[in-house]
Amino acid sequence: MVAYALAGTTDIDLVNEPIGKDENGTPVYLREIWPSQNEIADAIARTAKPEVFRRLYNNVSTSNPDWNKIPSEDSPLYPWKESSTYIQNPPFFDTMETLAAPLHDITHALVLGVFGDSITTDHISPAGSIAADSPAGRYLIEHGVAKKDFNQYGTRRGNDRVMLRGTFANIRLKNLMVPGVEGGVTIHFPDGEQLPIYDAAMKYKTEGVPLVIIAGKEYGTGSSRDWAAKGTALLGVQAVLAESFERIHRSNLVGMGVLPLQFKEGQNAELLGLTGKEIISVEGINEQMLPKQDVTVKVEKADGNTFTFTMTARLDTPVEVAYYANGGILPTVLRGLLNIEA
Question: Does residue 45 sit in helix, strand or coil?
């Protein structure tokens, strides 16, 4: 209750709700500890004075001699080092053109994974220890890092080459395309080879095959981990088809240029018979897209039979449509700085 209130609500009913009891069993109300607007203004006036900021920041470039002793390049550009296993030049602008390409349908995509309900960002995002036999572990060993020095994914979040290999690598992840198996594995088609999700995605990339993910309810629930969306995009996933999305992860997917598609009420992957062996196309993606527009999903089964169904493109606002049209929030911002419209 207190946490919710401190997050910014001013709902009068919440303020008047009891938040606990004191040692005598008497209810304690949030209004008893909640400061008034006048009290907040008085506190700011007493403490936020210009001289405080001048004292703290006037000599910021010389106030920390230990920091200034760290060797650095005298250059406006960061000197990226290819040998670093902690930080690398991120690839988000590598293929960016000055003008955004026209929006177009997703055609002949294959399925990278089929997941059930409540797949969390901890399932998706690189987190925890790095296993030696994982794609990320093999990468570090190939670059001269001993197992004892692997550290954890969180410490290497500045290296996309490690983080990408750790996306969908959670040992508790269950891909329904590989029944009875836990961990970040999938099936590569058409050869049917079982591979780590990263390895399969890179193989599809060399083959020029777009990818989609299929999931159940509450996809992306949990903490708003940015690498859950970054890694998904860098794996080559162009759309996620789910029954519902966690609010922030859906927004993050849009921000990385990945299209969230929501099944209509009463539909899901199981009822539609989707197993991950299908070829998926999404039709109706064009320059005239509107928020929450319906699109048509065309499914080609392994036996050659096809069927279609309708999904909602969860681009919820005109701003999100613009992000998606630009390929994500980063290209949108950069083109905005260059005064180039999508």
Answer: helix
* 328 token code pair: 């994500």
Please tell me whether residue 241 adopts helix, strand or coil conformation: strand
Residue-wise pLDDT for 94-118, tens only, equals 989 989 999 999 999 999 999 999 9
Task: Specify whether the CB–CB gap between 85 and 145 falls below 8 A.
Answer: yes
Q: What are phi and psi of 154, to 5 degrees?
A: -60, -30
Quote the CA–CA distance of 141 and 146 in Å, as a whole number. Answer: 6
pLDDT digits (tens, 9 = 90+) for 274-301: 999 999 999 999 999 999 999 999 999 9
DSSP letter (8 states) at residue 177? T
d(CA 247, CA 221): 8
Extract the runs of DSSP E, i.e. beta strands, from the chain: 18-21, 27-29, 106-114, 185-188, 193-196, 211-214, 237-242, 259-263, 279-283, 294-300, 306-313
275 Cβ neighbours under 8 A, 6+ residues apart? 114, 176, 177
Residue extents of the structural domains in the chain: 2-57, 106-125+170-337, 130-166
Model confidence, pTM: 0.80
Confidence at 15, pLDDT banded by 50, 70, 90: low
**CATH code of the domain occupying 106-125+170-337:** 3.20.19.10
Beta strands 306-313 and 294-300 are antiparallel
